[in-house]
Design a protein that fits this description.
GO terms for molecular function: glycerate kinase activity. Keywords: Kinase, Transferase. The chain has helices spanning about 20-35, 55-60, 95-100, 115-130, 150-155, 210-215, 220-240, 260-265, 275-280, 285, 310-320, 355-360, 365-385, and strands at about 10, 40-45, 65-70, 80-85, 90-95, 135, 155-160, 180, 190-195, 265-270, 290-300, 325-330, 345-350. By secondary structure, the chain is α/β, with parallel strands linked by helices. The protein has two domains: about 10-45 and about 290-385, Rossmann fold (3-Layer(aba) Sandwich), CATH 3.40.50.10350; about 55-275, Glycerate kinase, domain 2 (Alpha-Beta Complex). A six-stranded mixed beta sheet has the order 3-4-5-6-9-10, with helices on both faces. A five-stranded parallel beta sheet has the order 2-1-11-12-13. Helix 1 crosses helix 13. The radius of gyration is 22 Å and the shape is elongated. The two termini are about 15 Å apart.
């Protein structure tokens, strides 16, 4: 009896925002592959680029442990936030778990007072667990405080010219007179931070945290100008204390400038989010001997090239000569540029005109069916070489 030829497929997608997690997308695609090729060896590897959903993707791919803590959200309310323990003294923290915009209803969003204090509380939880390496995913923040709240949670004291502690939020930073590091948690001296980012914006200026990301957090044009000047003043004081000027470092404008304080005072490096998560998930190991790769995200267009998951997965696959099929909820303007980045073919999963609600509700079935069809086509095209 002849055995079916070996057929290895790696399924490494991002989430479909507001519809399916990366793990759910990977499960649906894997099901479709197996419908077309029951003999296939399918490796499901949920991915992310450092933004929302990164914690779920990392835990699904690594088998890490989900832990929970009660911390402050961006406007100071107690909330339950998750973080990941990956073993080997490594913790993964998604900042949006504590200070995410989606936690705050539009009517309560306060861009001048929103704080990253809760993110600092999660870092303390990780240190208490024995972490000496903290991987921090940026994205989806409600804050524009340059990480001042995180700094305060870790023990730094920010005070005004009367010696009073600064209240939360980026809007208060214009009153900063000095920084006292005496009570900063001493364990931080032996902690390595790796910051996952998918943007290269600096802290201040026309491409900075306030100008580019402030409006989506509820900041008015006047708020944006005020926050930008407050961040610039905060940075000036930080440089005087730390002796390190990180104001123009690419990525310090991500997540309301959260990475700025970490880069200024701790052992830290910025890395493209998809590359860092690919390393944690051991994407390269999974790709060894693969015949085909599936990736995808909710919408793909020219912007996907700028650090998003499908482009990152394609780079790794292309280095090994493996074809890549990308599935998306929709394909936007300029998606064809992905072909130069290593995507072999890209498809929208929608079967025709559908409402957004219908697309969300049927996303798993649509992904399964499109993956099945693509796998059947690939097998038909490769049959002469595989017999």
């Amino acid at each position: 009896m002849m055995r079916a030829p070996r057929f290895k497929v790696v399924v490494a997608p991002d989430s479909f925002k507001e519809s399916l997690s990366a793990a759910q997308v990977a499960a649906a695609i894997s099901e479709g592959v197996r419908l077309a090729a029951p003999h296939a060896e399918v490796h499901s590897l949920p991915m992310a680029d450092g933004g929302e959903g990164s914690l779920d993707a990392v835990l699904a791919a690594t088998g890490g442990e989900r832990r929970r803590a009660t911390v402050r959200d961006a406007i100071g309310r107690n909330c339950e936030a998750a973080w990941g323990w990956l073993g080997e003294h490594t913790a993964f923290i998604e900042m949006a778990e504590a200070a995410g915009l989606e936690r705050i209803t539009p009517g309560l969003r306060d861009p001048l007072r929103a704080s990253t204090f809760g993110v600092g509380q999660l870092v303390l939880q990780a240190l208490d667990a024995g972490a000496r390496r903290v991987v921090l995913g940026l994205g989806g923040s409600a804050t524009t405080d340059a990480g001042a709240g995180l700094f305060q949670a870790l023990g730094a004291r920010l005070f005004d010219d009367e010696g009073a502690d600064l209240p939360p939020g980026g809007g208060a930073l214009h009153r900063l007179a000095g920084i006292d590091l005496y009570h900063l948690d001493p364990r931080l001296a032996d902690t390595q931070f790796e910051i996952a980012v998918d943007v290269d914006n600096p802290l201040c200026g026309e491409r900075g945290a306030a100008a580019i990301f402030g409006p989506q957090k509820g900041a008015s044009p006047a708020d944006v100008d005020f926050l930008d000047s407050a961040l610039a003043h905060f940075a000036q004081v930080c440089v005087a204390v730390s002796g390190r000027d990180e104001t123009k470092t690419p990525g310090t404008g991500a997540a309301g400038g959260l990475g700025f304080v970490i880069k200024s005072f701790f052992q830290a490096q910025f890395r493209p989010g998809v590359e860092l998560i690919a390393e944690l998930a051991r994407l390269d190991d999974a790709l060894e001997g693969a015949d085909l790769v599936f990736t995808g995200e909710g919408r793909m267009d020219r912007q996907t090239l700028l650090g998003k998951t499908p482009a990152g997965v394609a780079r790794h696959a292309r280095a090994r000569g493996i074809p890549v099929i990308a599935l998306a909820g929709s394909l936007g303007e300029g998606y064809e540029a992905l072909y130069e980045a290593g995507i072999t073919a890209a498809f929208s999963v929608a079967p025709g005109p559908v409402t957004l609600q219908q697309a969300f509700a049927e996303a798993a079935a649509l992904l399964r069916d499109r993956a099945r069809d693509c796998t059947r086509l690939w097998l038909a095209g490769s049959e002469p070489q595989r017999t």
